[in-house]
Amino acid sequence: MATPPLSLALFDCDGTLVDSQYAIIAAIEAAWRSEGLSPPTAGQVRRVVGLALEQSVAVLAAKVSPVKRARLVQAYREAFFAQRHTLADTSPLFPGIVAALDTLDRQGILLGIATGKSRRGLDAVLEQHGLTGRFVTLQTPDCAPGKPDPGMVLLAGAETGVDPANIAVIGDTVYDIRMARAAAAGAIGVTWGYHEPEELKAAGADCVVARVTEVPAAVTSLVYGGRDKALALTA
């Protein structure tokens, strides 16, 4: 029997592994108020989750001067890390995530993360949830362009020795799906995050899953069986 190719499940963080919208919205509100601005709505914030912080601020504060946007970025970072002692409460893991990671681990599939968070922010969340060391590659905008640029996927592949064809990106936003497509990697959309299933399909997701328990089978079907098998599994 042929040995399966080396494969990588590359997870988004916010909206896929952790429900971080409350921490993000609170930090955005604090940053905007520090500059005397009316904060964006929760819905507006959820739309930019997944982008690098600078990109998110540029979208949410498009009419604000570059100098003030830079101050908003710094104020957000300060506000987010002021929450570091409560991150496990304000950014809880979605139920079933650890079990899904365990299943993929047992199947010999490497685990990684590609996120719009800074490395400092990602490390804080992983530490809070006891996940430090679970992932063999951690990609952030500190080392590559933010989503939907393919850079983080390509770097993850280079670090792990996995061909993009054997990488499955798992994420809840169109930015994740577009990043995967641009890197010629597989793309699995999840419905428990911040973008609608129809948007994920339109962006080019190979399949969209509604339950965390479906993720391991979707990953193995995609990286070992190809797009048609993954589509059939979650149709």
Write a structural description.
- The model has no long low-confidence stretch (mean pLDDT 92).
- This protein is an alpha/beta fold and 235 residues long.
- Helix 11 (215-225) packs antiparallel against helix 12 (227-234).
- The chain has a six-stranded parallel beta sheet, sandwiched between helices.
- The chain contains twelve helices and six strands.
- 49% of the residues lie in helices and 11% in strands.
Q: Architecture of the largest domain, CATH level 2? A: 3-Layer(aba) Sandwich
First-last Cα distance: 29 Å
The counted number of beta strands is 6
What's the number of domains? 2
Over the alpha carbons, how many angstroms does the gyration radius reach? Answer: 17 Å
| Strand percentage | 5-15%
Percentage of residues in helical conformation = 40-55%
Going across the biggest sheet, name each strand in turn: 3-2-1-4-5-6
Mean pLDDT: 92
Query: Can you write the helix and strand succession as a string?
Result: EHHHHHHEHEHEHEHEHH
CATH fold call of the largest domain: Rossmann fold
- Described by the principal axes of the CA atoms, the overall outline is globular
Total DSSP helices: 12
Poorly predicted regions are none
Largest sheet: number of strands, sense, barrel closure: 6 strands, parallel
Name given to the CATH homologous superfamily of the largest domain = HAD superfamily/HAD-like
Q: Structural class of the secondary structure composition? A: alpha/beta
Specify the CATH class of the largest domain.
Answer: Alpha Beta
